[in-house]
Amino acid sequence: MSETSRIEAFSDGVFAIAITLLILExxxxxxxxLGRALMNDWPSFLAFLASFFTIGVMWMNHHRLxxxxxxxxxxxxxxxxxxxxxxxxxxxxxxxxxxxxxxxxAGLVYSTTFFVMSLFFQxxxxxxxxxxxxxxxxxxxxxxxxxxxxxxxxxxxxIAIAIAFVSGTAVLIWSALVAVYFAFPASAFxxx
Amino acid sequence: MSETSRIEAFSDGVFAIAITLLILExxxxxxxxLGRALMNDWPSFLAFLASFFTIGVMWMNHHRLxxxxxxxxxxxxxxxxxxxxxxxxxxxxxxxxxxxxxxxxAGLVYSTTFFVMSLFFQxxxxxxxxxxxxxxxxxxxxxxxxxxxxxxxxxxxxIAIAIAFVSGTAVLIWSALVAVYFAFPASAFxxx
Amino acid sequence: MSETSRIEAFSDGVFAIAITLLILExxxxxxxxLGRALMNDWPSFLAFLASFFTIGVMWMNHHRLxxxxxxxxxxxxxxxxxxxxxxxxxxxxxxxxxxxxxxxxAGLVYSTTFFVMSLFFQxxxxxxxxxxxxxxxxxxxxxxxxxxxxxxxxxxxxIAIAIAFVSGTAVLIWSALVAVYFAFPASAFxxx
Amino acid sequence: MSETSRIEAFSDGVFAIAITLLILExxxxxxxxLGRALMNDWPSFLAFLASFFTIGVMWMNHHRLxxxxxxxxxxxxxxxxxxxxxxxxxxxxxxxxxxxxxxxxAGLVYSTTFFVMSLFFQxxxxxxxxxxxxxxxxxxxxxxxxxxxxxxxxxxxxIAIAIAFVSGTAVLIWSALVAVYFAFPASAFxxx
Lengths: 192, 192, 192, 192
Description:
mainly alpha; 75% helix
């Protein structure tokens, strides 16, 4: 078991870089009517916003989990690396869907990415709460509320996959709404 | 309420990356007379400088605000995410105006970005000063001076929007001057 | 001798950025059948995964070494810079092998990169353990286990170089397996 | 006066990103004989190495200065921002000289960049040592040694500018040698 400050610092770095790299995928129009070109580029802007808020809210949740986690073992560090794999991957499906907003496969890659990430969060949190010595004992009520909120993750992103069969744009809007849901702390949904 | 060190670390990462990514927008000329090509690229260099100092000074201000902020709740974290959204966005209008210095729309996107960011700072600071438990109580005079300085932000960037109707280059110079104004601490403008 | 926290912070930044930049090398297909284009791009995805886990596990090991290191002198800072040189270099051979999976030279550059990095780790660790005042004295058993594990690094990556003469894809798979080996802590391989 | 930890964190981020972005300037050859294309690309590799070590050693020096600096005022934060402006700028002249190793103007831009940065370091250090309340008083001997070492910076980079009139490649080699000189701590050059 080791303390978690350097894991958090490395993770913060990855989150911060991935969220900032998103802007590189929006290309400056070269020729023609600039105003119209910017208008036509709305899928890029929408994809930027949806992915920005998803990464931002995942960072908020990572932050919340680590306020409850006191110590890490090698398995937890490995599972954290899986979470970060998902985070570094996000700029690719974002660019894919921004470039091909009407291709079903682009929407499917985008929504499946988030579905898999919600499973990674499940596995990470499941291990953290069950393995002894990781959680600070005084906050088991807060931990249980998070467990409940996270059960919704795979469900909500399965719906995103279903939406991808209809419209890539709708996937982006749905993903932004799911981000709003996870922006709320778990305690907001529990009867006290 | 939680302490703010990890919020600052994540924010520092985003500020540092956005300010460093600006250089990627300056392309190396491939063919022809290299000296002349570099000369002709002056809008890129000017845009790089104006955005570098704007992000740098926004970081300075973020740093100053967080020396007065003691604790954060979920709303403040969300409002901080809005500030970071603006910061990650800046490389795009910078590249847009560097590539199209004579297009009115490019200057408008650039100046409107900073206008909206100055509103984000207002909302962030308004919440921080009014919600109980966020500010450290012993420095309310310093907080009030900042409030006064920040009232100028939207005004100065509204002027930038007006300037954008005349000249994109002038927007860049004006923005650099506004950065100089905000580089000074709020206390520099108050009668003691 | 100075304390190591800022060396770790700078190193964490370099690791975090290098691991996140890998995704920039995967290009979004522009034209044609998008599903098929993504399928054909499997070498890019495999290279992304192999390099992601290699950098991630190197970070884990860097983290482990620095839990045993108490103080740094200028030589150690210089040797750490060599490690970071290797880390920042990795995105290039990754992109090279992803773009040219069937070129022997690409596989050789990729595997030689990791071989040289394993030598850098040897030199770094050899200096840290032999120079007085660097290691915390109470954990010499843990340090010796790491020394044994690290002797395998150059051997395993020499095998990678041999594999590169046969297949670039096999190099990627082998490298991912070596990453798994180094993900385990050194203590996992020692008879207690 | 405020403490310096967040200034260091932000600076570490900028240094780490700039040093890692250098690799993005090395492009993967697309067509033709891959081995020969890599050989012909040696100016890119040399420029990468020279700039990597220059940024790395500037980080080492920044780190050393801040072990002697106890507190920062707004002027010092502004001067630090000037240093960071130089750091974020480095990837551009690096790419310029890598792409145009035989153009005199490319070598001049590269060497002038480092000359100006050495002046920025002078101004920064001059302010830090003369303004009261910034330096920790117990280490004035160490501070004076650094002052002496830094006087050599502008001289050594003026020589680099002169070399640029002869050969861009020689500028890169000279810059790497200057980095070696500044890698040594100032105390290594003083008679004890």
